[in-house]
Amino acid sequence: MVFGALKSEGDLRRWLEDQLRTPGVMPRESQPAVSLTKAGAPADTDFPSTPADGVLALDTTGPTLYARVAGEWKPL
After folding, report:
1. How far is Cα 24 from Cα 9, in angstroms, rounded to an integer?
2. Could you please report the per-residue DSSP string of 39-62?
3. pTM score over 0.70
4. pLDDT tens, 2-39?
């Protein structure tokens, strides 16, 4: 995933919103691209049940986008 030169959290949000409007990338009827936004790195305890691999979370203090891969949170 390539973000380019993002200077702020607003840039990342605009990029994600643009991806949602791009035909064929993600249907609007599906779940949001980012499942969680919070200050700090995500943890499994932030969810009501263990999140599946592929879930995305945004650390708003970074901003850093995380993905759950092989049962662990990895920064992208």
Report:
1. 25
2. SS---GGGSSSPPPTT-EEEETTT
3. no
4. 445 555 556 666 776 666 665 554 444 555 677 889 99
